[in-house]
Each structure stands twice: as structure tokens, then as C-alpha cells.
Amino acid sequence: MDTSPTTLFNNYEQDFQQIIESIRDKVEENSKSEGVEQRKTALRRVEMELDEADEMVSQMEIEVQGMPQSIKPQYQARIKSAKAELTRFKKLSKELHAQLTRFDLMGGVGGRPIGPSSADDPYGTSDRTRLLAGTALLEDGTRRLQESQRIALETEEQGSDILSNLRRQREQIENTRDTLHAADASVDRASGTLKKMVLRMYKQRFITGAIITVLILLILIIVYEKVFA
């Protein structure tokens, strides 16, 4: 399996485009749907998929960091385009959510009642719709908080892994440095030993030369005495 930064980037980008297509379909269905609860459900799914798309963009940014400098700008431009598209759908989602909440509080889409009238509802449609809207906002806030906690935990775990890798790398560097120091000391000792051996060799050569010279002189003296005595 190819795990190069460009391949992973393309995979994340493909997942991002699929999520965006799903969001676009849900937004179109939301605009055509007449049921308030159906539109609420669709918007909640849209917001979940927007979070997933945001996560894909973050993964794309991580992969770009490991790319060669020569190709990095073109992938950064693709990230910029993806961010712009994601921002547009986030803004559209907020607008639809605000519109739906406003219509819900009014008692129906376009001001038309979506249920029994106040006279037929002993609990009060307006109070109930406000309660439902508040509950939906609370659920949305809770879901976002849980998602933020999940991302924070994942980030913390990734940071812990990075610190562990850095710690292992530092230990390896320290071990290598100690090994180099030991090797340097061994080289120094070997160099000193070689110098001593060279000096000893020169001494031995000098002594041997002196002995040979003395022997030659003795031979010459003996020969002289034999010949001229």
C-alpha cells in the first residue's frame, strides 16, 4: 500500500469531495422538504458531515508538510480551494439553521402553522416549539463539545507519540555520540602506540647500525694489523 504524502493527500481529498457532495445533496433535500423535523434531522447530519470534512482538510494540511518543496505550492492551492468550499457550506448551514429556528418559533414554515392551532393545543404550540428549539440547540452544543473532546484526545495522543519518537531519537543520538567518543579515544590510544613503536624501531635501527659500524672497524683494524704488521 502506497503511503506517500501525495497518495494520502489525494485519498483525503477524494473523501472530502464525497462528503461535500453528500452535504450538497442534503442541503438541496432540506430546501425541498416541508417537514420541520425532517429538516432538523437533515441539518444535524449536514453539521456532522461538515465536521468530517473539516477533519479531512486538517489531514490534508498534515500531509502537505511532508511533501517536497517543488510540488508543495500546488497542493496548498488545492487545500485553499477546499477550505473556501467548506466555509461556504458552513455559512449556508448556519443560515438554514437560523431560518429553520426562526420558522419553528413562528409555528411553521413561511408563517403557516405546522401543527394544531393554539386553540386546539392545551399545552401551547409556541411554548412547545421554543422548548424543542432549545433542546435541539442543547443537543447540538453537546454533540459539538463531545466532538471537540474527541479531537483534543486524538491530538493529545498524537502529541504523546511524537514526544516518544523524539525521546527515542535523542537516546539514539546520545548513544551514537558516546560511541564516537569511545572510538575517538581508541584512535588516540592506537596513534600513541604507533608513535612509540616507530620511535623504538628507529632506536633499534640506530643501535644495529652502530654495532655493524663497530664490527666493520674491528675487521678493518684486524686486517690492517695482519697485512702491515
Estimated helix fraction? over 70%
Continuous helix count:
4
Low confidence ranges? 108-125
What is the distance, rounded to the nearest whole angstrom, between the alpha carbons of the first and last residues? 103 Å
Q: Which topology of the domain at 5-115 does CATH recognise?
A: Methane Monooxygenase Hydroxylase, Chain G, domain 1
Proportion of residues in β-strands: under 5%
Q: Mean of residue pLDDT?
A: 81
Annotation, overall tally of beta strands: 0
Shape, please?
Answer: rod-shaped
Structural class: mainly alpha
Largest sheet properties = none
* CATH architecture identity of the domain at 5-115: Up-down Bundle
CATH class (first level) name of the domain at 5-115: Mainly Alpha
Based on CA atoms alone, the radius of gyration comes out at 43 Å
- Secondary-structure element sequence? HHHH
CATH superfamily descriptor of the domain at 5-115: t-snare proteins
